[in-house]
Amino acid sequence: MRTLGIVLALLCCVAAQECNPRSFGYDSVVCVCDETHCDQPGVIDFPDEGSFTVVTSSRDGLRFNVETLPVSSEASPDAEVVTLNKDDVYQTMLGFGGAFTDSTGLNVVALSSEVQEHFLRSYFAPEGIGYTFGRIPIAGCDCSTRTYSYDDVEGDADLVHWNLTFEDYDYKIPLILRAKEMTTYPLKMFGSPWSSPAWMKTNGMFNGSGILIAEYWQPWANYIVKFVEAYEAEGVELWGLTPQNEPLGGLTDWKINAIGWSAESMRDWLKGYLGPTLEAAGYRHLKMMIHDFNRDSLPWYVEPMLNDPECAQYVDGIGVHWYADRIIPPEVLDETQALSPESFLLYTEACQGNEVEGSELSVNLGSWQRGEEYVHYMLDAVNHYSTGWVDWNMALDILGGPNWANNFLDSPVIVDTEANEFYKQPMFYTIGHLSKFVIPGAERITWTTTATNIEVAAFNDPSGRTVVVILNKNDVEEELTVTDGSENFLNFNIPPKAIQTILY
């Protein structure tokens, strides 16, 4: 144990490198990573009893700044108070992560091997932000350079010509395997299909308005099983699946790859085809997450599936996308959780820049505003039963692509392949204030506060200690006291426009 402690201490000291800041004219900075330098927060553990650790990132340039302070026997007299209730326990957290899209992989493999290593360690290693989830698009999606499936041979219902593509072998699988080697906790991978082969759909297209032709319901289930088998053969074992990305999209003239599913048709396909086919192949252990769409279709979309026992037996969780959170209140998550308390909620996709038409505005390099908004909704989600947050692309280029549908987006990391460097945006750090410290098995607890524009999420760590994440949306520094009803008080300041993680 002593040797392990020395190794961890050395790892912390070696890895805890400072940000190399660069401004692109927004309200904060990015941190530049190249062959010679990449900032890492290092291994940040709980402090000794009698102390607490404050980790801070801010609009004004702090990035995982670490300070250890003494616990006090009384509250600061002028402080706003955050009161924790450690006995009021809610959902168990599953973790945080991002998607291994074609676009992410294409950008990353264009970097030198040294910079690739910096990228993967930044996301997955213990000295980075500790991602524990990975999402895999099953074949192509909009974040690809082309439309494709694993079987584009017209009418091949027996899937004789089914095969993985160069995107899997070049852009996805190698990065996943390397990431798996880095993580402290098992990397939970789940697959999500965007579209079947175009010939299986009523409109004969990868996108647009089209549903699966009835005679292909079984071949499409077989197709998904083949994906699981193929990735397993490459050393990538899956933890879960969603049956369809954004299933209501394909009922409209959807811009990107899609299949349309009504709630009732999804129910019938799950219970009659996909569920039994996975079970027969020995894959019932995979976590099946229905919905995988925005919360404006909750809870009504999942009700027919959860209320049908034949379907519900194949359902383990409900996937949620972020894109309607600005307009739909979080109480719909509570209502959804109440429908099936034994099922978990998990945010399975989110990204900034999606509301902007045109690549010139999709990427906002150094935007603290986007990072702050992101963590606001992350705290909102976990305070309403979400067991984690899986981001969308882990890396995009400076335009927010590539993207065959010109659906350009922003990302926590932006890659400049010509310069052989990448930029960690404020979003990367705000996500990291949860992903690095709120580990799988942590339990959410409740809190109250006297402060305004201060947002909080709090957790019992599996070790029995406590993690508190605090967002200050104010333009001024705030004096805070955290207490949990014991005789101990944590007194500290939070800078303006900052996020902090408290460990004690």
Describe the structure.
There is one protein chain. The protein has helices spanning about 1-15, 100-110, 115-125, 165-180, 215-235, 265-280, 305, 310, 330-340, 360, 370-380, 425-435; strands spanning about 20, 30-35, 50-60, 65-70, 80-90, 95-100, 135-140, 190-195, 240, 285-295, 315-320, 345-350, 385-395, 395, 415, 420-425, 445-450, 455-460, 465-470, 480-485, 490-495, 500-504. By secondary structure, the protein is of the alpha/beta class. The chain folds into 2 domains: about 50-90 and about 445-504, Immunoglobulin-like (Sandwich), CATH 2.60.40; about 95-435, Alpha-Beta Barrel (TIM Barrel). A 9-stranded mixed β-sheet has the order 4-3-22-19-18-17-5-20-21. An 8-stranded parallel barrel has the order 6-7-8-9-10-11-12-13, surrounded by 5 helices. The radius of gyration is 23 Å and the shape is globular. Residues about 1-15 have low confidence and may be disordered.
List keywords for this structure.
12 helices; alpha/beta; TIM Barrel; nine-stranded mixed beta sheet; 504 residues; 2 domains; Immunoglobulin-like; disordered N terminus
Q: What spatial form do the alpha-carbon principal axes imply?
A: globular
Architecture per CATH nomenclature, i.e. the level-2 architecture of the largest domain:
Alpha-Beta Barrel
What is the highest CATH level, the class of the largest domain? Alpha Beta
- The fold-level CATH name of the largest domain is TIM Barrel
Query: Which residue ranges are poorly predicted, with pLDDT under 50 across at least 5 consecutive positions?
Result: 1-15
The residue-averaged pLDDT reads 95
Helix content: 25-40%
- Strand count, sense and closure of the main sheet? 9 strands, mixed
Biggest sheet: strand arrangement: 4-3-22-19-18-17-5-20-21
Q: What is the strand content?
A: 25-35%
